[in-house]
Amino acid sequence: MVRGVANLYACAGAAWLAASFCPTALACDLSQPETGTVANVIDGETLQLTDGRTVRVIGAKAPMAPLGWRGEDPWPLVDEAKDALESLASGREIELRFGGRRIDRHGHALAQVFVVGGGARLWLQEELVAKGLARVYSLPDSRACIAELTAREREARANRRGVWGSSAYRIESALDVKRLGRLIHSYQLVEGRVASVGEGGGRLFLNFTPDWRSDFTISVERKAVGAFAAAGIDLKALTGARLRVRGFLAWRNGPMIEASHPEQIELLPEGPRQEM
């Protein structure tokens, strides 16, 4: 493994489109690079290479319509995200660097992707997240660089760029169970105050109203509790805490997100809920 350069933002301009070479644009651990050429952009987070490999731009969840959506108009920003990725990467030479599981169950590479050429290096994930054309996500075995990307997402949200200027991608309220129910099987950020923490069946449950049988819930396998504690999140002590969780919504006695690793949960300061 190689150590990503921690002083990325000390590079001249520290911008995504630095005109001169700047060391690997990450403060995280990644593998030595594998190279390739982009033949086709499949969607806002997936590349097809000339050697036949398919690459998921891991950590940057592109805008996507909810499963089963049948509206007549295009879902907001789906096309814009694909167009942006095409503009940045189509036909370009790239480096693939890995910080966790390398291949998903479909045989797709899970990589941090850099467009290289002319002495410059462009980190695709950072660019898409900073433009508001992707939201940060992680997998339990593919979590490299999430802190860096989350910082870029915070800036994009504060400036209402891309998805953060659209109600279709707003941060949802944990109390709006009816709306969350309509968003099942979609990737969401949900924010609220924990009403209670329960245990059962090898799991911890963070409930957001006293009616735990129908409210929004975060479910965590007990075997994952230690990883949260190591990251400074004591799940059993979160009653009364405000937090934001990100993940795919399911329905288990109400809307639920399964949290398998600490990057999914962000503890929030006291104050009003953020709408976007």
**Beta fraction:** 25-35%
Mean pLDDT: 89
Global outline: globular
The CATH architecture term of the largest domain is Beta Barrel
Which structural class matches the secondary elements? alpha+beta
Query: Distance between termini?
Result: 37 Å
Total beta-strand segments: 18
User: So how many helices?
Assistant: 5
Task: Please name the CATH topology of the largest domain.
Answer: OB fold (Dihydrolipoamide Acetyltransferase, E2P)
Biggest sheet layout = 8 strands, mixed
How many independent structural domains? 2
Per CATH, the class of the largest domain reads: Mainly Beta
Order of helices and strands: EEEEEEHEEEHEHEHEEEEHEEE
- Which regions have little confidence, pLDDT < 50, spanning 5+ residues? 1-26
Q: Radius of gyration, rounded?
A: 19 Å
**Helix content, binned percent:** 10-25%
Tell me about this structure:
There is one protein chain. With 276 residues, the protein is of the alpha+beta class. The chain has two domains: 2-143, OB fold (Dihydrolipoamide Acetyltransferase, E2P) (Beta Barrel); 170-267, Beta Barrel (OB fold (Dihydrolipoamide Acetyltransferase, E2P)). Helix content is 16%, strand content 31%. Strands 11, 12, 13, 14, 15, 16, 17 and 18 form an eight-stranded mixed β-sheet that branches. A five-stranded mixed β-barrel has the order 3-4-5-8-7. A two-stranded antiparallel sheet has the order 1-2. Strand 4 and strand 5 (54-57) form a beta hairpin. Helix 2 (124-130) packs parallel to helix 3 (146-158). The radius of gyration is 19 Å and the shape is globular. Mean pLDDT is 89; it is low at 1-26.
